[in-house]
Predict the structure.
Amino acid sequence: RFLRVRFEITGKLQFQAVIRNALAANEWGNEEREGKMPFEKGVGFDLAIKNEAYAFQIFVNGERFTSFAHRQDPNDISGLQIQGDIELTGIQIQ
């Protein structure tokens, strides 16, 4: 069974918001925007995403930023894609 599910985190500096959403069955769900903006233009950061039983736990620079409840079976997640205007200096998958 192949199920394409997309979880997206988008930092919008101009809106001072980090938008979280998921795409499943070619439809976007409701956006989540709660929380402060942890990113600054031109400043590096560490981002950690833990896939737990009921939600993604998202950490920025070692501090919990937010969680994002699963909208599909977390066992269907099989990859990670990073794109956009970002300078990636490293990635670690555990």
